[in-house]
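Lesson 9: reading folded outputs for more than one chain in a single document. The general rule is that every protein is listed as its sequence immediately followed by its structure tokens, and records are never interleaved. Here is the first one.
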Amino acid sequence: MRVLFLELDTENAWAVASLGPAFLAAWLRRHGHEAAFLRVPPTEPIAAIAESVARVAPDLIGVSMTTRQWLRARDVLGGLRRLVDIPTIVGGLHATFSPEEVLRHDGVDYLCLGEGEAALLDLVEALQSGRCVADDTIANIWAKGGARPSLRNPIEPLDALPFLARDLMDERWGVRHITTQRGCPFPCTFCAARMYDKLYASLDTTRYGRRRGQGNVLAELTELREQGPLNYVIFLDDTFTIQHAWVREFCKVYGKEFAVPFSLNARVETVSQSLLADLAAAGCRHIIYGVESGSERVRREIMKRNASNQRFRDVFRWTREAGIMATANYIIGTPGESRAEMAETIALHHELEPVDFGFFVFYPYPGTELFQLCRDNGYLPDDYLTRPANHRESILNLPQVSRADIAEVYEQWTAIRVAAALRRVPLGAAAAGGLSVVERDIRARAATA
């Protein structure tokens, strides 16, 4: 059978594609099936999408989606169903944690809960043989109109999986993306990644959290280098720096065999000065830390993150001293956060002095603890299911702060962003043509503010 995976862009014309389909495609190909990829731009008309799908002539359409992609996926799949008669399966975070809502819409025939490689293969082979999949007959696969399926054990070990099907990732410029693990052991209440661990822990299955062997990761990197070019590696694990023994040994071999610059995600609780030195020696040039809030109360009581502000100050200083660039990410408007505590985040940001930073208005993702809190307390608007999931404005009706309060703080962060950009490159450089379109836009906004 031939499965066509759709990558649904929602805002940007290009970004690296979802990892899920690349894993699934590799697994299907190993077992004798075909897999194809189609990137769907944000404004692509349904008729044009249908023409592209028809040229591929798939037997099954697959979509892996986050909550931010859901409304676009709903519209595209519903529109395609009116033009082409091809069964469709959806998976990913949003499908796993809002399955009933997703299944009730036109254009969705099957839904995958949790990990999908073995489940999708079973579905493909059932469809190929003409078997009916109308009820709880395939673990993890929920058929429209059928009962919720049981969950199968995750694939163990992760080294049993083939390497990612890179033609489905749309990577460019020799920048390669790698994952070394699945699952996250930390209990952050705003993050859906942790919910996979909870989903599997609540059932009669083995642990979802697993890490690849170092040799397996290095073998994939060797293969990528042979295919060339290999200019930069981005490790996409939620927290690369857990299991220090694994990380240190990996750094020794990677630094000797590759020495290609790389970036990763970390938590301040999981790094030390010596570990940062090992990472830098191996080629680490960039670490992204989730700071989230400058209020220790908000982090501790609301987000379930116990690191102190002093720990953040120390780690950001250690990272600079190691010669590694640090990016900080912040969340604005978390339920229970006061306007004064939002100001504490800005104050801590100025102390940390990251090279770059991201700021995001809180959005309640289904499956997370804070989503449940928002629903239980009536913070969600009645039409939240039809509102786009974005991080520029709040959709919540919070008792302590208004949407206008959050919007004002967002504008403060925007001003900080513009000022930081201006410090890096003077306004005159834009006129000389030395800046990207985005950078020119930032400076134009600053000049007219």
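And here is the second record, again sequence then tokens.
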Amino acid sequence: MGDGRVMARRILLLGGLFVVLLYCGGHQAASQQDSSSIRVNVVLVQLNVAVTDHKGNYISGLRPEDFEIMEDKIPETIATFEEGNERTIRTEPPSADKSSAPASVQDSQATTGVSAMPALQNLGANVYVLFDTSNYMYRGFVFAQDAIADFVRSLEPDYKIAFYSYSRDLSRATTLTGDHMQVLRGVRGSVAGDDAALYNCLLLTVKDAAPLKGRKAIVVFSNGPDNASSVPPENVAELAQSTGTIIYMISTQQAENDPVSNAVFERMSKATGGKAYFAKNWKDEKQAFASVRDDLAHLYSLSYYPQSNPNRGWRAITVKLKGKELEKYHVRTRDGYRLSQQAQTLSENQPDSAVTETAPNPASTSN
């Protein structure tokens, strides 16, 4: 009986040892497999591109093969293509496999204005209206409200809109929503306030737009220079570029007469692929908003997986049209982006005290 028990114990010990060896061997093999495999965090860089002739008329009907994209002078292959409010075309299948997606940006989160998996349907557009309610606005306040309200009414039903206002602080009167009537109520409820901290508040608005997919734009109405910000406009422009957010600046003749504001508004909008407008009267203001609406409706949205690139900082982007017949047209888009961690560092340097939020409406939604 004793010999039987000893034998049974030996069998159990040998069996346990075999299980341990099997586990260790399998774990070691898995570790070797993990160490030899390539983990690719694939992202898409998204570009919003306007194409116009020498008179400023939009050119429609272009196809993916008509565009040439270079990043740091490296040719890129278009992955998805969309014209205005048309359906998205996928020009190559998305994949996390390195052979089919030859490049990656290996930082933690991409802020290149893209999504990791593009949708086949059109996502509309996300539009943030940032309204100057500082003490510069006392005279033309009602006219500006009317222009913004007309702009909101004119946008496509599938567009999501947010209405923010700013003076010294940012007020998120209406967060991003598809309910345009709710946005109009936010516009009519705005009141004039204090000094103007435009760049502080614009940077916070860019941060709100940064995670969104598809076309996204901030339309700023400013009636005067910034006299209260601690954030330089260069930081705002760079974060907007790196997150694929277009900035349109609509200002008054007063701002155009200020050479500093004039130069900054022009430079910021151009860097992000937008435009700057200087309105002499309320009719010009409405026309400027109508021009922004038309621009959003005619943008080509292109995306690509960036090729392998050792550059871990600012990456320059150029977009051209192919063929002699198309070379005469003008192409407008952002001129580059910075990789995510550095772009996020820029956004973290703004003073949090610049924010005053109204309670979000439960009916509002965001992407």
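What the second record shows: The domain at 40-367 is CATH 3.40.50.410 (Rossmann fold).
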